[in-house]
Amino acid sequence: MAAPAPRTVVVGTGPVAEAAAAELDAVRVPAPGALAEPAVRSAGPVGLAVVVVGRADADATVARVLGALGHPRPRVLVVTERLELPDLARTLDAGHLSGVVMAPWTPGNLRRYADAQLARWVRRRGGRAEEVAQDRPPEPEPRASGLLRHLQQDPDSAAAELLEAVESVLGPRPRLQLPPHVRLTIEDDDVGQLFLVLSGRVALSVNTGVGALTLHHASTGPLIGLFALTGPQAATVTARTTTDCEVVPLTVEQLDRALTGEPRVGTALTALTVRALSARLRRAERLHVEKAELATELQRTLRELEAARAGLVEQARMATLGETTAGVAHELSNPIAAVTRGVEHLSADLRVLLGGGEDDVVRAAFEAAETREAVSAGDERSLRRELARATGATPSQVRRLVAAGVTDPTRARTVLTGPPEELARVEAAAGIGATMRSLRTAADHVGRLVEDLRVHARPDDPGAPLEATDLAATVRDALGLVEHRLAGLTVDVRCDDDLPPVGSRPGRLAQVWANLLANAADALDGSGRITVRARRTEDGGVVVEVEDDGPGVPPSLQGRIFEPRFTTKHGVVRSGLGLGLGISRSIVVQHGGTIGLESEPGRTVFTVELPALRTGPGTTAAGAPTTGAGAPAGRDGIPPGPTEEKEQR
User: Fold this and answer.
1) How many domains does the chain have?
2) Distances (CA, A) of 615 to 301, 502, 619, 625
3) Which residue segment(s) compose the domain that 434 sits in?
4) Is there a single domain that holds both residue 500 and residue 599?
């Protein structure tokens, strides 16, 4: 069953509305609200609403009509007796106004306008214009003006009709048969004639600072040399045939004679000129849009190039810093080794100088101070009270004895009953022992730091295969590198014992963890907790999470957090290189992994997933045993490295 034909509805009261409904043979309703009645809605779709506007606000009336009709929205034709309509601006701005008719109108014209609007409504929805008003007797087809008829013709037909009108005055005109690459006009030369292109294609080009630029073929049109119509002047473009062409040349004088002798020439010429200028205007508008889009794309590319340049500069700086660091580490290795050996020799020599046996109080104080751990204030007060009760010494003597590490009552009595200078000798020996312990601890710390720097600064060979790497060891190295930035923070490291080896180049993964730890430290600003977790994944890989309880990254910035030269601290964008996270992502991707971010106030987690290296069981690339489930734990729960294993053995 065919769909009902679209209808016209007249909205309004009074003689104008009645006359409109009579001419259109349409249903008339007195007010917009009546359009929502079932009887009106059930009669079929309304394609055109003829709204008769009196003194009421026109915008408001049209809005009520459209609201009552709903969708699909009909076209709106306003009929009025008012010469001034200041109240249709909103309707026009919204695209609802299809036309305005002044009452009274010439009989028949309103019906012609209405049928045209209904036909547009049908075509917009994919129908055919023949569906309009099938229940009315056909009106005689109005004769279109010559200009509009020519504008609706295809270019070839319009050119042929122009030539026929010209030849009716001038007689037959010669046709030029031209091969490709023939210039019809030359840029900057005088234009004295027009060319009517009957067949073939012609391209327009202009000279620019980067060479000749060919304009779009579709914007050329069948008339070449339009500027000749405005008087003697130079051509702004070069017109050149691109295929075999048939053209008719017309001088300005010949065209003037044809215009005088035949009115059709003017109509056809105007139509072709409007079509050509319209095509060139549309092309110019598209070029303007393309130019704006290209400018935006160029700006984006420029930003990327600037970021890449900044990254290269930073990489070069880091490479130089790495070389310097490697040199410094090498130069520090020997002095630190000398300090370590010197401490051991000095300790042995002091034992010889102090003499005595194991029961010697002075020597015992020295040896105890070398290995004694720091005592809390509460424990120290408890030791003073016990020693005072056991020996009856004065508070000053008790304080000095405990400070020197003499807490055994028997040894304390020996010191107190000995020569007056005995307590001073014990204090001095304990002080020397504590100093030796501090020197040994500092030398060990500097040695570990130098080793971390040496590994971190080792240059990469891009062509070298990935080495089997103990991931927990890289976390430990990173902690050593950024230890100075973690002051005041609680750092909790939880690495599973069964982590498989991952493929990497020395120092690269440590750089990732160092960047993530430094980023977390900056977010916490001296107070908070950082948790590092490393575990095996179900597919045999490794997941490392670096979590902090800082303020988090705002959702609007999380998508840019890995961009080069972008940084955020406490949710506020600040200046700086901002390359740490970008470099970290690059390193992770190079190792076949992924890095992601989850953040909310109080919890920010960077998650790195890395595939395990497929090597022989139990060995790394260097042949060192990997950490197994039974390996002892080192500092902070991290499986020990070679140095720690040696110390524990």
Assistant:
1) 4
2) 42, 9, 7, 12
3) 355-453
4) yes
C-beta of residue 523 within 8 angstroms of C-beta of residue 484: no
> Do 29 and 9 contact (CB within 8 A), yes or no?
yes
In the DSSP assignment, the letter for residue 484 is G
Both tokens of residue 99? 């036309």
Q: What CATH number does the domain containing 597 carry?
A: 3.30.565.10
Residue 453 has pLDDT above 90, yes or no: no
Instruction: Look up the pTM and report it.
Output: 0.44
Residues across the chain: 649
Residues 79 and 153 in one domain: no
> From residue 77, how far is each of 6, 21, 94 by CA, in Å?
15, 13, 14
Give 493-517 pLDDT, tens digit per residue. Answer: 999 888 888 888 756 788 889 889 9
User: Within 13 Å, how many C-alpha atoms sit on residue 105's CB side?
Assistant: 22
* CB contact at 8 A, 249 and 195: yes
| Residue recorded with tokens 């690339």 | 621
Q: Are residues 547 and 602 in the same domain?
A: yes
Do 431 and 570 lie in one domain? The reply is no
Decide if 109 contacts 99 (C-beta within 8 A): no
Residues 194 and 257 in one domain: yes
pLDDT digits (tens, 9 = 90+) for 112-158: 889 888 888 888 877 654 555 444 444 444 444 556 666 666 777 78
| Tens-digit pLDDT profile for residues 338-383 | 888 888 888 888 877 777 665 578 878 787 777 777 667 777 788 7
Q: Let me know whether 498 and 634 are in one domain.
A: yes
Kindly state whether residue 642 falls inside one of the protein's structural domains.
Answer: yes
Q: Report the candidate in 110, 132, 111 with the shortest Cα–Cα distance to residue 6.
A: 132
Return the pLDDT at 12.
92
